[in-house]
Amino acid sequence: MTASAAVRRLGKYREVARMSARNKLRYRGNFAGSMLTYGLFVYVFSRIWAAAYAGKAGIAGYDYSMSVWYFIIAEVSVFGFGRFFWNLAEDLKSGQVAYLLAKPYGFIGYHFAQAMGQGLLDAGVIFLEGLAAGLILAGLPPNFMLWRLALVMVSLLIAGCLQFFLQMSIAMTAFWVEENAAFFWIFQKLALVVGTLLPLEFLPLWAQTAAVWTPLPSLSYAPGRIAVAASPGESLVLMGLQLAWLAAATLLSRLVFMAGHRKISIQGG
Amino acid sequence: MNVIEAEGLEKTFTTRVKPEGLKASFASLVKPRMREVAAVKGVSFEVESGEVLAFLGPNGAGKSTTIKMLTGILAPSAGKARVLGLDPAKERLELSRYIGAVFGQRSQLWFHLPPADSFRLIGAIYEIDESDRIWRQAELVERFGLAPYMDVPVRKLSLGERIRCEIAASLLPCPQVLFLDEPTIGLDVIAKREIRLLLAEAAEVDDVTVFLTSHDIGDIEKLCKRAIIIHHGEVVVDESMKDLRHRALARKLVGVKYAEPVRFQIDGLSPVKVKAADVAGAAGIAGAAGVAGAGDGAWTAASFEVDTRCHQLPDLIRALAEKGEILDLTVEDEPLENIIAGIYGAQSGAEAAAAARPRTASAPAAPQTTAPAGEKAFS
After folding, report:
1. Is residue A92 part of a domain?
2. Beta strands in B18-91 (DSSP E)
């Protein structure tokens, strides 16, 4: 394939992402719900942490400011990239997915571009809101440095991609089962407990050990930890793990699609 | 050159049976009951380059499933298909570059954005040079009269406007084969006529092979050169529209009204409807089969279905004229719709195939049991 052909081939996914972003931007109200909920969550948790830290300097190595900032960053991954499943599952169940197969693009690539087009906008808006809320509620982040901010953004981007491929794999179980929302609920609740609401260090040792063997810490814990406590070395290890899980999840989604797409069963028009 | 070849194409779906009652519902959680439904049963046909083909059938006949197999969306359970020399099941991605598809009940346009955005996206997806895309889009916008709609969100367009945009969008990448699955469904008479004209023009101007499924006989009569009728998953008719139309034209509806009641029999032909002057003491219209003694009663009016390949129309009219003073006489072509409805009404593929075969004898509703072959004279 020539370079120009490769650029053109990638260009279609860029165009899909742009369309998706335009679609998201059509109403200002599209952002209002998640911004309101996120702001409320951050405020409520900042009050919970304030009560928990009353009379204490730190818990599991985190002080009040670190815990608030950790929650703010960890939740960006959830609010920005945590709800792809519902659109994917709807496409699969309604049969719309079948018609997408009649076009010259990679099925997973198309959905990835579509999801990220609006996911990046969602995450960007929530991230900015989080920065503002954090400054008001907890002051400047602890150990604030520009390199840390840059690494947080890269880590959040990897977390977003990982969110997509994991959720896509779960959504594609619809090729076999009629109702797969329960799988996503389990995944979502586990992700919430393992590294989103609380840093891993707050969990019992056995749970921390078990969590390391799952992709869950790469979704929220990694960017949250990089934001407040990780050294440059630890940050690179966390991002390396994120990339490894991303590669595994990409492969998993590809395998699930290859095994399942021939099972598409749509009767009638 | 054949652009589409289907050979013994089959598709069987497995569906879960939902039992009635709470107990059975619990039992089905443990041991679900599955049922196999054969949607397409060994369909074979070929389509030549440049043909405009009508692929017809009642609801549930297997039309959409066949289209989905030909476009690579569904994998066939058995049989083979080749479209533009490619195997849709194995080379779906490659094939998708050369075909277009419009599914009347689905949309390829982004609902909340104007069609212009979807056109640009389709250009990118099919890897069309931007300058070519702009030129081609301008040509289609002019031909389909889309200029007023290109910057209006799709959700605000009428169904007819949306379908015009859908068809134009599917023609943007210059496909070699265009699959249209019920493109005029839900449209009013005017919108249907516009879509038919545009499709006919597209087939000619864009030199595209058109594979059209529709329930609308108007679509088929106006657009297609050949019709395949599929019923109960089997092909029951595969012939040119000329032959199908000829078959319809060969059947005439003859109506006659007399000044006075007449009493007569016509060999080999029974009326499908009579106005019997002597039934229950009052004249009334009834189906011939439902009238006691139809055929030997006295009539003031009657209607006949006449297959002109079996009966000479002038002979019938002469025979009718000899029976009494005629007040009115009408001769009408049987609508093509009736022929197709007869096929659709069949309970099985074999029955539909039998209904599809040209009749060699008298009218379908004739109560007579004998059906002499060849032309008949009347007495």
Report:
1. yes
2. 33-48, 52-56, 78-83
| Residues A109-159: tens digit of each pLDDT | 999 999 999 999 999 999 999 999 999 999 988 888 889 999 999 999 999
A31 within domain boundaries: yes
Average pLDDT of span A90-95: 80
Contact criterion met (CB < 8 Å) for A102 and B73 = yes
Torsion of CA B84, B89, B90, B91, to 10 degrees: 40
Nearest CA-CA distance, residue B234 and chain A, Å: 15
A vs B, Cβ pairs < 8 A, gives 87
B348 touches chain A (CB under 8 A): no
B63 touches chain A (CB under 8 A): yes
Rounded to 5 degrees, φ, ψ at B65 are -65, -40
**Residue of A23, A104, A268 lying closest to B110 (CB–CB):** A23
Say yes or no for a CB contact (<8 Å) between A16 and B64: no
pLDDT tens across B216-227, in order? Answer: 777 777 788 898
Domain housing B209: 2-246
Instruction: Tally the domains of chain A.
Output: 1
Residue A268 pLDDT > 90, yes or no? no
CA distance A98 to chain B (A): 6
Q: Are residues B153 and B184 in the same domain?
A: yes
Mean pLDDT of chain A, nearest integer: 91
Please give the residue range of the domain that contains residue A232.
11-262
Residues of chain B with pLDDT under 50: 279-295, 360-379
Q: Any chain A CB within 8 A of the CB of B325?
A: no
Residue B192 domain-assigned (yes or no): yes
Domain assignment of residue B148, yes or no: yes
Confidence of residue A56 (pLDDT cuts 50, 70, 90): confident
Quick one: B234 and B264 in the same domain?
Answer: no
Residue A269 lies in a domain: no
Q: Are B367 and B295 in contact (CB under 8 A)?
A: yes
Q: Which of B246, B265, B292 is the last residue of a domain?
A: B246
- State the Cα–Cα distance between residues B350 and B138, nearest whole angstrom: 49
pLDDT tens by residue, B84-106: 999 999 999 999 999 999 887 78
As for how many domains chain B has, the answer is 2
Residues of chain A whose C-beta is under 8 A from some C-beta in B? 5, 8-9, 11-12, 14-16, 19, 22-23, 26, 95-96, 98-99, 101-106, 178, 262, 264-269
Where b means 16+ CB within 10 Å and e means fewer, A137-169 reads bbeebbeeeeebeebbbebbbbbbbbbbbbbbb
B220/B275 same-domain check = no
Say which of B60, B96, B117 has its CB closest to residue A103. B96
Which pLDDT score is estimated for B262?
A: 83
The interface pTM score, or ipTM, of the predicted complex is 0.87
B74 interfaces chain A, CB cutoff of 8 Å: yes
Say if CB B78 and CB B270 are below 8 A apart. no
